[in-house]
Design brief:
The structure holds two protein chains of two kinds.
Chain A (H helix, E strand, L loop, with lengths): L7 H6 L1 H33 L4 H19 L5 H12 L24 H28 L6 E2 L9 H4 L12 E2 L1 H20 L7 H5 L13 H13 L10 H7 L4
Antiparallel strand pairs in A: 1-2
Helix pairs in contact in A: 2-5, 2-7, 3-9
Chain B lengths: L1 H5 L15 H19 L4 H13 L5 H14 L8 H14 L3 H14 L4 H13 L3 H14 L4 H13 L3 H14 L4 H13 L3 H14 L4 H14 L2 H17 L5 H18 L11 H19 L4 H16 L1
Helix pairs in contact in B: 2-3, 3-4, 4-5, 5-6, 5-7, 6-7, 7-8, 8-9, 9-10, 10-11, 11-12, 12-13, 13-14, 13-15, 14-15, 15-16, 15-17, 16-17
The chains are: A mainly alpha, B mainly alpha.
Chain lengths: ~250, ~325
């Protein structure tokens, strides 16, 4: 079908062939989403090996939080010794971390393995986009591909009718590029049905802006520790069991 | 089945109550329903599958039933099982080691090994198998192999500790467990185990620390308060007795009166009161000690009259002896 002809007739005749082409594009995109999803799954499993240091840090913070919340259930002496265990200026758990010497060195750029993972991920996501965009443009060049049920203004014409030369064509007739975007966004629903979970290779999520998805390294742990230490100092210990015996005798429970 | 008679259970499909009463209270009702279904339809694939998955997900220990029905299920080779069959094989394998059923253990293990020849998880099961056969040195070398590749493989570390404990090397087990807890500080199961190990060595102060850690992790569980009180009582001393009294009372305040904690805490409270009173001059500061003891005595005798009336005279004698000390 060439859009150089008058218009409607040409569109009607060629619709069967172009339908096939469109369907194949749809299918290929769908299958590639599934394949990419599985590839991403394999890749992210490799990231799950946390270093011992990160585990200890996380656990220490959790333990601190538990101590803060539930301090009133243990006797004062035990609480005091635990607080000293965390806050002791020489040997306390929270005072061991020193601030880094070179603040620039600390952060996502310093960790080469993490950086590599991030860029690998980006490449894997971007590459199929480029490939499909090119594929789409090449095969469907100059064709009217679909008719949208709504009108857009004339200003949108250069974008949605990229390769079509006739001027007076309605803006509801779109070319391949807009079909490409339609498929991109439309497939999300079907892939969630098929894969049953968050699609790891979902490019639309990437577009929504996840710039620094590089894990934890640039959380400055010594600052967190310092704030935890101060919080611990501020805890006021009131033993919850002060009146346990009298409460028991006065209750109707037994 | 005379094991069951000894434990006072009438039927093989009865529900056990264990000492700590933690999981069995919660699961007793559901487990009972599953067991009744199993009794009625012992070879139904669906019933067995549901029972096995319930036991697996809630970490219960009914190895006898698991082996019996798991064996039936595995012989059926029904298509209904699907991918779950590997988890079930692992479950039945461990249960058969528990019930000393070598044939089923070997069958399950060979199937797992054939399917996953290079898996760390299956290697750990191999270690378990060697332990069950008594070949501790071979099991130890397998675990060391696994730990050489992955130093923080939690199930294997726990297995090593369990082996040391079974071999009687308690101090080594304690050391290993401490090493583990320095990294994974939030593991309540490990803190529980460490407390038990310390108690077996009568290191009361260290056991107290463990129970404090447990109280911090879950302050609304009566078990931890009760055990903490019991350790305080065992340590002895005026301050500890006072603390123990408060913790026993707190246990009674927060526990369900029908639970096993209540009885034990009542008895603990009574004994602590009598111990306090025997401390002489300091005890005179606690004017309410006698009142607390009387209250305990009343409640205990009421419970015994209701549940075990033939033991009431014995209980009265014991309490009377304690009462003598209290009033001295």
């Amino acid at each position: 079908v060439s859009t150089q002809s008058t218009g409607h007739e040409g569109v009607n005749i060629g619709l069967e062939y172009s339908e096939l082409g469109l369907l194949s594009h749809y299918l290929i995109k769908f299958l590639s989403e599934i394949i990419l999803h599985n590839i991403m799954k394999l890749m992210t499993q490799a990231d799950k090996k946390l270093e011992k240091k990160n585990i200890v840090q996380g656990q220490t913070l959790q333990r601190c939080a538990r101590l803060k919340t539930n301090a009133s259930y243990i006797p004062y002496s035990s609480f005091a010794s635990r607080r000293a265990f965390f806050n002791n200026p020489d040997t306390g758990l929270l005072t061991q971390e020193k601030p880094p010497e070179n603040p620039l060195l600390n952060g996502p750029l310093s960790d080469p393995s993490v950086l590599l993972e991030g860029s690998k991920r980006n490449v894997i996501m971007v590459l199929p986009q480029l490939v499909f965009g090119g594929f789409c443009n090449y095969f469907f060049d100059g064709f009217v591909v679909a008719k949208l049920p709504f009108y857009l203004t004339q200003k949108w014409k250069p974008m949605i009718q990229r390769s079509i030369e006739t001027v007076p064509l309605d803006t509801s007739y779109v070319s391949s590029l807009s079909w490409y975007f339609l498929v991109l966004f439309g497939l999300r629903g079907i892939t969630t049905l098929a894969l049953g979970e968050k699609n790891l290779a979902d490019e639309t999520q990437m577009m929504q802006g996840q710039p620094l998805d590089m894990g934890q390294p640039h959380i400055e742990i010594h600052k967190v520790y310092l704030s935890e230490k101060e919080n611990l100092e501020l805890v006021k210990h009131e033993w919850a069991l002060e009146n346990a015996v009298s409460n028991l005798l006065n209750s109707d429970k037994y | 089945s005379d094991v069951y008679k000894r434990q006072g259970i009438n039927a093989e499909y009865g529900v056990f109550t264990t000492d700590c009463g933690m999981s069995s209270e919660k699961h007793a009702k559901d487990l009972k329903a599953h067991c009744e279904l199993l009794q009625r339809y012992p070879t139904n694939t669906n019933t067995i599958l549901e029972f096995l998955s319930y036991v697996r997900h809630n970490n219960l220990r009914r190895s006898d039933l698991v082996v019996k029905h798991g064996d039936i299920l595995l012989k059926q080779s029904s298509g209904q099982v699907g991918d779950e069959v590997w988890a079930i094989l692992e479950q039945v394998f461990i249960a058969s080691l528990d019930t000393n059923n070598k044939r089923i253990a070997d069958e399950c293990f060979s199937r797992l090994k054939r399917q996953f020849p290079n898996s760390t998880r299956v290697k750990r099961l191999e270690g378990l198998k060697l332990e069950a056969e008594g070949r501790y040195e071979d099991a130890k070398s397998i675990y060391e192999q696994i730990l050489a590749e992955d130093a923080w493989n939690i199930p294997v570390i726990k297995r090593v500790v369990a082996m040391l404990k079974a071999a009687g090397k308690t101090s080594q087990a304690i050391a290993k467990l401490n090493e583990y807890l320095k990294v994974y500080m939030g593991d309540t199961e490990a803190w529980n185990e460490l407390a038990d190990l310390y108690l077996s060595q009568q290191l009361y102060k260290n056991a107290e620390f463990c129970y404090e850690e447990l109280i911090l992790s879950n302050p609304h569980h009566p078990l931890y308060h009760r055990k903490y009180a019991e350790v305080l009582f065992s340590s002895g001393g005026f301050e500890n007795y006072k603390l123990a009294r408060s913790y026993f009372s707190h246990t009674l305040n927060i526990c369900n009166p029908q639970s096993p904690h209540a009885n034990r805490a009542l008895i603990g409270l009574a004994v602590t009161c009598s111990a306090l009173s025997s401390k002489g001059k300091q005890a005179k500061d606690l004017k309410d000690n006698v009142a607390v003891f009387d209250w305990c005595k009343k409640k205990l005798l009421a419970r015994y009259r209701e549940k075990a009336p033939d033991k009431v005279p014995l209980m009265e004698k014991v309490l009377a002896k304690m009462l003598d000390k209290t009033q001295a």
